[in-house]
Specification:
Layout: H1 8-16, E1 22-23, H2 34-40, H3 64-75, E2 87-90, H4 92-104, E3 110-115, H5 120-127, E4 131-136, H6 147-153, E5 158-164, H7 176-189, E6 192-196, E7 225-230, E8 243-247, H8 250-263, H9 269-279, H10 281-308, E9 313-315, E10 323-330, E11 333-334, H11 337-348, E12 350-351, E13 353-354, H12 355-358, E14 366-370, H13 375-392
Parallel strand pairs: 1-12, 3-4, 3-5, 5-6, 6-7
Antiparallel strand pairs: 2-8, 7-8, 9-10, 10-11, 10-14, 13-14
Helix pairs in contact: 3-9, 4-5, 4-8, 10-13
Bound molecules: pyridoxal-5'-phosphate.
Length: 400
C-alpha cells in the first residue's frame, strides 16, 4: 500500500477556512460567481452554458473551445504557435500535477523538486516510489534556488525536475535567464522539466518590460517541458475545478493521456464551458485586470503592515502570485508559527497558514499570507493582526 503523509496545508484549510472571519490564508484571487463573470464579459448576451447540449462525457481530452483558448494564450508570445492537441484538461491543477508524476515516475526513478512549494509536487512522486531530492531556495537569495546545486543533485536516473513559478508560498519568480540555465542543464541530460504555473499571470510587482520577466516555460526552446495551469488562482474560479497540462512533445501528451484515461476519463462539460467563457477574448482581459489590480491594491496594504510591524516580522517582498511568506519573531527568535496562527485565529478570527507545519520544519516563524482575497477582508484582518502583534506576541511560544 502507498504510504501517504498528511497534506498539511490542505488539512489546515479544511480544518479552519470555514471557521474564520478573515481568510488571509486563501491562495485564489477573490473568487467570482457566474453572474460576476458575465458582468466582466464584453458580450453579455453570449450563453455561458449550452442548456440544450446533452451531458455526455464530452470531448475526452477537453473541449475544442477550451483547448483552443488555452493554445491561443500559450501562442501569444511564443516563436511557434501551440496546437490545441498539445493540451489536456484536468479536474484542477492538483490532478494535472498528479498525472504527470503518475505517468512519468516510479520506483528506480529520481526526481528533483523546487522547495518550498505545494506539498503534492514532491510528495506524490515519493508516494509513487520515486526517490525525491529537494532543490532548496533560501530567503537570503530572494527565494531563488542555485543552478550549481541543481547540477550537483542530478543522478543518472533523474527523470523529472519539478518547479513552481511563480512560487507558492514565497511569491518569488524564477526569471528568464534562470529559466534558460535550468533548460540548458535539463536538456544536457535529457531530463523532463515540469513547471507548475498555476499562479501565472498574476504578476503584480514585475512587468513584461523587465528584462527578467519570465515567459511560460513552454515558450523556452526545449521539447521535454510540461506546464500545468489552473482556473482556480489567476482566474478566480476554483469552484469549477478546471486545470490543464500542456507540452510541445506529442509523446509526452500521449503518455499522459493514457494515464488520464484511468484517473479522469473527461472533465465536467459544465465546468469546461465556464472555463472556455472566462478565457475567451471577450472576458479574459477584464478578468485578469480585475485580479491583478486586486493583487496590487492588497499588496500595498500588506507592505504597510510589514513596515508597521518591522520589529516583529520580516519578508522578501513577493513579485508575483497571491502569497507572501512572512517570518514573525520576538527579538530575533522565530515564534512557533502554529501557536502564532492558532492564537491569532482564536483572538481575532484571522486565518494565516503556519509555515513550519505546512511547508517544512525549517520554516520556523514563517506564515503564509494569501493576500488576494477581497480588500476589506485583507484590510480588517491585517489591522486586527497588528493589534494582536502589539498585545499578544509575548504570549506566543517561541520555536524550539
Ligand atoms: C502550486 C499549486 N499547484 C496546484 C494547486 C492546486 O490547484 P487547483 O485548484 O487547480 O487544483 C495549488 C493550490 O493551492 C497550488 O498552490
Amino acid at each position: 500500500m502507498v504510504k501517504i503523509e498528511s497534506f498539511s496545508v490542505e488539512k489546515w484549510m479544511d480544518q479552519y477556512e470555514h471557521h474564520c472571519e478573515h481568510n488571509i490564508a486563501e491562495t485564489c484571487c477573490a473568487s467570482i460567481s457566474i453572474d460576476q463573470l458575465r458582468e466582466l464579459s464584453e458580450d453579455k448576451g453570449r450563453e455561458i452554458f449550452q442548456a440544450s447540449k446533452p451531458l455526455t462525457y464530452g470531448s475526452i481530452r477537453g473541449s475544442d473551445e477550451l483547448r483552443s483558448n488555452l493554445a491561443r494564450l500559450y501562442s501569444a508570445k511564443a516563436t511557434n504557435p501551440l496546437s490545441p492537441d498539445n493540451i489536456l484538461t484536468t479536474p484542477g491543477a492538483i490532478q494535472a500535477n498528479y498525472l504527470c508524476a503518475y505517468a512519468l515516475v516510479g520506483p528506480g526513478d529520481h526526481v528533483i523538486c523546487h522547495y518550498p512549494t505545494y506539498q503534492s509536487l514532491y510528495d506524490v512522486p515519493k508516494q509513487l516510489g520515486a526517490e525525491v531530492d529537494l532543490w532548496k531556495a533560501k530567503a537570503q537569495n530572494q527565494w531563488v534556488p542555485e543552478i550549481a546545486k541543481l547540477k550537483s543533485l542530478i543522478k543518472p536516473n533523474t527523470k523529472l525536475i519539478i518547479v513552481n513559478n511563480p512560487n507558492n508560498p514565497t511569491g518569488a519568480v524564477l526569471k528568464r535567464p534562470f529559466l534558460q540555465e535550468l533548460i540548458d542543464v535539463a536538456s544536457e541530460h535529457g531530463i523532463i522539466v515540469m513547471c507548475d504555473e498555476v499562479y501565472r499571470p498574476v504578476f503584480h510587482s514585475i512587468t513584461p518590460a523587465d528584462s527578467g520577466f519570465p515567459p511560460s516555460l513552454l515558450s523556452m526552446d526545449y521539447r521535454k517541458v510540461i506546464v500545468t495551469g489552473s482556473m482556480s488562482k489567476a482566474y478566480a474560479l476554483a469552484g469549477i475545478r478546471v486545470g490543464w497540462i500542456a507540452s510541445r512533445d506529442p509523446e509526452i501528451i500521449e503518455q499522459l493521456a493514457e494515464a488520464r484515461h484511468y484517473t479522469t476519463i473527461s472533465v465536467s462539460q459544465l465546468d469546461e464551458q465556464v472555463a472556455a467563457y472566462a478565457l475567451h477574448q471577450n472576458t479574459i482581459h477584464s478578468l485578469l485586470a480585475r485580479n491583478i489590480k486586486l493583487a496590487k491594491t492588497n499588496l500595498e496594504l500588506l507592505e504597510k503592515f510589514v513596515l508597521k510591524n518591522d520589529d516583529a516580522c520580516e519578508w522578501v517582498k513577493p513579485l508575483a502570485g497571491t502569497t507572501a511568506f512572512v517570518k514573525f519573531h520576538r527579538e530575533g527568535i522565530p515564534v512557533d508559527s502554529v501557536d502564532f496562527c492558532e492564537k491569532l485565529l482564536k483572538e481575532t478570527g484571522v486565518l494565516f497558514v503556519p509555515g513550519n507545519e505546512c511547508f517544512g520544519e525549517e520554516f520556523k516563524g514563517y506564515v503564509r499570507i494569501g493576500f488576494v482575497n477581497h480588500t476589506e477582508i485583507i484590510k480588517e484582518g491585517l489591522d486586527k493582526t497588528t493589534k494582536f502583534v502589539r498585545k499578544s506576541l509575548d504570549d506566543v511560544k517561541l520555536a524550539t
